[in-house]
What we know:
18% helix, globular
Amino acid sequence: MKKGWIGYALLGAAFYLVFLLAAVPAAWFAWGLARATQGVVSLSAPVGSIWSGSGALVVHRAPEPPRQLGRVSWGVNPLWLVTGRLGLGAALEVAGGGEARGRVRLGVGSIVVRDLSASFAAQILPSLYSPAALLDPKGRVDVRAEELLLDRANVSGRAEINWQGAATSLSSVQPLGDYRLIFEGQGASAAVRLETLSGELDLNGAGQWQVQTGQLNFNGTAAARSRAEELGTLLRLMGPDQGGGRHAFSIQKVLLPGQ
């Protein structure tokens, strides 16, 4: 009889533990997100639980005021916790129109993104990368990636970013064209390639991003396919003329996740 009562007690404790876990509020998810991104990304007014909820996604980049990206909803697969990893699906309704969705698996020092699909107005880019505000970008951005894996030393997988109807307030030629940026993991580094799909301004380039240091080294060229006089000011801003109307530009910058 005594062993029976012990069994019932353990079963009751197990059910109570499951109840407590199921009732963990979404605020815990918000805390984890802020900690993982070192305060760069936060979740405002979260509702639901840590397993299934939603909230307003906000980006903080001092000294600029916080910018709301949109409303995100998520669902966590608790079975992944058995493996010591956190697996979740997320969808974002982007402010100003657009959406993004995908699946994320977090491990100790690693992140895997699968089935990433996003489409949004280019005006949101300064919220993701502050220097983009200088361009005042316009157009439409689409992002696709079947699988990307990133840990402390390696990156694998491929992502494509298409900027359609690209335009900037720095040029009277609008749009400038359609462009594609390809990111392809190669172990300790990733190859980055820029190509022109169509348009008045021809942009091409290639570079490497180092995982451990976050160093991006990129070199490219820009030239007018037509309307050269109207594009002259923008081309001169991009870099020196290398002859034949082709201007060279380079980017050397440290880009680390969470920055």
